[in-house]
């Protein structure tokens, strides 16, 4: 049986758009996913990142730590990281952890793309 697809990765110019396809709780979160995503940043043409949560409703502390790691990497390259399609539950997690102060959250992917491109 092939491994379960965990996310999709798309490009729009210098923007990488990552869409997790499963909730990222500690039980479902995978080190393989982390390794694969970090490898995408070996491409020096990627400057910005959109995390699109349209397919999820939850992420755990391990995933939050990974998002912080991605944010630092993007920031070090002079880029921006934004989130979109964040569920009410995910918004609550970001607010409780005060991480909502670090990332702009947009209601749609289109709004996130427009924000990064402006």
Fold and architecture overview:
The protein is α/β, with parallel strands linked by helices. It has one domain: Transcription Regulator spoIIAA. Helix content is 37%, strand content 20%. It is built from 4 helices and 5 strands. Strands 1-2-3-4-5 form a 5-stranded mixed sheet. The longest helix has 16 residues, at 61-76. The chain is globular and about 30 Å long. The termini are far apart.
Q: Any key phrases for this structure?
A:
alpha/beta, single chain, 118 residues, 5 strands, five-stranded mixed beta sheet, Transcription Regulator spoIIAA
Reported CATH architecture: 2-Layer Sandwich
Task: Please state the CA-atom Rg, rounded to the nearest Å.
Answer: 13 Å
Unreliable residue runs: none
Reading the helices and strands in chain order gives: EEHEHEHEH
Supply the helix-strand structural class: alpha/beta
CATH superfamily: STAS domain
CATH class term: Alpha Beta
Strand order of the largest sheet: 1-2-3-4-5
Strand content: 15-25%
The major beta sheet can be summarized as: 5 strands, mixed
Termini separation comes to 44 Å
Quick one: overall form? globular
The total count of helices amounts to: 4
Q: Name the helicity range.
A: 25-40%
